[in-house]
Amino acid sequence: MIRPLRLKPSSACLVAALLLTGALAFGQSSSSAGPAAPGPSGPTRFAEGRYELGRRTRALERAWMDCRDAERRAAAIPRIQAAVLGFFSGNASAVAQSLDETAAALRGQSPSAADQWAAALSVTPARALVDLREPTLDVTIATLYEVNAPRPELTLRLAVGKSAATVRLPADAPLPRRARIAFEPATQDADAALEVVAGTPDRPARQAWRVGVSRVRDLDRRLAALDAAAAALAKSLAPDAFDVERSTLATRLSLLKALREKPPLETDLAAASLLRDAERLVEGLRATPPRSTLSGLAGETLLSAPTAKGPLPARALANPDAPVLVVAFHGAGGSENMFFDSYGDGEIVRLCRARSWALICPRVTSPLDDYGPVIERLPGLLAPKAKRIFLVGHSLGAVTTLAVATKYADRLAGIAPISGRAPGATGALKALPTFVSAGTKDFSRAGSEQLAERLRAQETPTTFKLYETEHLLVVPDALPDIFAWMDRLALDRRADE
Hints:
The protein is an alpha/beta fold. The protein has helices at 50-66, 70-86, 92-106, 113-120, 219-236, 243-261, 271-286, 338-341, 343-355, 372-376, 378-382, 396-408, 445-457, 474-496; strands at residues 31-32, 121-125, 129-131, 136-143, 154-160, 163-169, 177-182, 190-200, 203-216, 299-307, 310-318, 324-329, 358-362, 388-394, 414-418, 434-439, 462-467.
């Protein structure tokens, strides 16, 4: 089973709507950051800042969920709206600053200039997956945005395991700066983390977070072996045999190669476990007779469903005994990670775990794409005993929910489109229980209200509710009510059997 690396409280997935030159050795009590790289930190492009934006989005969501002060929430909504719209501008720097400032306001904090500068820092490893024989890791320190105050001297404590080092950044030190961090010797594959504590000499722990880094034995040889195995299996297996497994292998291999060459992409994944699971998948497909290692899984996993356009990635919470399966479609700009790592810092996962339900979150690019395998194929692998399937979707995912439900209404127990609108005719949904929701300050509110009116006009069993929030944070606010509604439907249906 693939276990995504949950580095609470600051592991990251971005939203979805949507680097030290020198030497730094672990085990030393302190270190200079080395020669400065030329130039200050400039505006961060969205693609480059996706991981950091995800980390900050999760912090904002936690602050929103923890805040019970109605006035603070109301005051934060305009800032959150500006941040959400900023995701589409491509300027990650402005969005990151807005997210940090809004989270602090929700917590009732008035950060000092030093606190703001510590919050603005990013620490980026050159790669998320490295070979155990590599003694060092290149790391880059930068600021995502400029604070409207002189920058103080900053300190960073960087640690992997028991080894740690301190980096001091004088007030006039240009950023970004780079360093080469020495790893502790190791012989076993491990999913670890670069732990970062940032502050100032008088208060060194103003901010703290973690960044996932995995280390494995013989990395390049094992990746090459997986490449060769995938090519051989494409020839040895019948075209329609084990197509989910072969799609999953292709997607996992692509992801591992990306993690080998790049920093964490948008969230921390347990790449060492991902590699081992890919190797087990190959072993199963090479066996006589071939067998699947995806069947009977329990817990979080990454897999892909075959479609005419190629593999459709999905992240799932598998449970072979789950009585209910929830399929969740994310909004524009997101990925299969969003419901797990955002939308209330994974609120839907907690709600499913509490009920021993299964969850599938496919990648959404268009409501017109083929999501048939998610309904027809994946439930048999991930939740074979599930008698009820519910769909949940946000924004673009809400439109996708309605499109999929139109085709598969007879297989579904209910749907919950959040901040969405009907893309076309709704006649096929007439008998399908539907929970429609939106935020009071949500730019999709009108579409949601019209959807609810259309459904009620055709006598569809419809629940409609507004929440005092905006387009993004309506999801964690609505999910508890949606799950209570699904609880009632699941109980009612069991009573009828």
